[in-house]
UniProtKB/TrEMBL annotation:
Gene Ontology BP annotations: positive regulation of translational termination
Domain JmjC: 97-250
Organism: Hymenobacter nivis
Protein name, as recorded: JmjC domain-containing protein
A Pfam family annotated for this UniProt entry: Cupin_8
Membrane-spanning intervals of the chain: none
UniProt GO molecular function: 2-oxoglutarate-dependent dioxygenase activity; sequence-specific DNA binding
Length: 285
């Protein structure tokens, strides 16, 4: 993986064979064109439609319009709090129909779009992220080995990914999913192996969607005031890693709970697997 391709036209079968199955990131420049809504998802749109809707970040409640003002004024010297996010199905339910079909004719089967796995559990999330200049996400790979789909609704954001074979160069914490390395200011004395890493970057522009396969280390750097939609995907290709994570996250705290979570994940995933074999495409709720 030497670069992240940007493609304006790609069949579903080609996506499956060239990107999902081998686990290679790709940017779809017009995937979101399949959404029903013709709105431009600008800050003004969210102020007018959802300005009074609230969310909590670090024990403080913020209204949408307040978040938009704070992030618009964010600077590298004084970055806004990040990530301030909304759980779309629970906090912005009226927005969800505007971004259907969420799968954009690519992100299916997605077992999270069925009725078996509860929303908010084991990686089943649909988020709206709002950020500004100076915001940077931690270097990580996604919990529960879900596939990530991120669509840039407004502004620009740089994504940086690392090939799978470079995990040892990133000094992951004991959890296995967070790295202490700041890619903008790496401490080579503390993390000398990082010199051998080969980060690959791509700038996501409004309307573009990046597919980040499970297990890929990545981070983001905001290039402007920006709004992103992020959802996760689970199917037979990452089921094994997903249920293993359900066990691993709990084994250090409570072995019995870890076994119970593994059993629950195995049972729910197996139901989805059988349902898919019976013809369920797992596209929508």
């Amino acid at each position: 993986m030497q670069e992240i391709e940007k493609l304006g036209s790609l069949s579903y079968d080609d996506f499956m064979e060239r990107y999902l199955k081998p686990g290679i990131p790709v940017v779809l420049t017009n995937g979101a064109a399949s959404w029903k809504s013709e709105h431009s998802f600008t800050p003004d749109f969210f102020r007018e439609r959802f300005g009074d809707y609230t969310t909590t970040h670090e024990d403080r409640v913020y209204a949408m319009r307040e978040i938009l003002d704070i992030t618009a004024n964010s600077t590298p010297e004084h970055p806004s709090p990040y990530p301030i996010l909304f759980e779309i199905p629970e906090q912005l339910a009226e927005f969800l129909p505007m971004v259907e079909p969420l799968h954009m004719n690519y992100a299916f089967p997605n077992w999270f779009r069925g009725k078996v796995i509860p929303y908010g559990r084991l990686g089943n999330n649909i988020h709206l992220f709002i950020g500004g200049v100076g915001n940077q996400y931690s270097l990580h790979k996604d919990m529960f080995h879900t596939n990530a789909w991120i669509t840039q609704l407004y502004g620009e954001k740089k994504f940086v990914v690392f090939p799978r074979d470079q995990e040892a160069l990133l000094y992951p914490h004991d959890s296995g999913f967070i790295s202490p390395i700041n890619i903008l200011k790496p401490d080579y004395e503390k993390y000398p192996k990082y010199r051998q890493a080969t980060p690959i970057s791509v700038t996501l522009k409004p309307g573009e969607t990046i597919f980040i396969p499970n297990g890929i280390w990545h981070t983001t750097v905001a290039l402007s005031h920006n709004i992103s939609l992020i959802f996760d995907q689970l199917n037979g290709h990452n089921f094994k890693a997903w249920k293993k994570d359900a066990y691993d996250y709990n084994k250090g705290k409570n072995k019995a709970k870890a076994l119970a979570m593994y059993g629950l994940a195995h049972a729910m995933g197996s139901i989805c697997q059988v349902s898919e074999l019976a013809g369920n495409k797992f596209r929508d709720n």
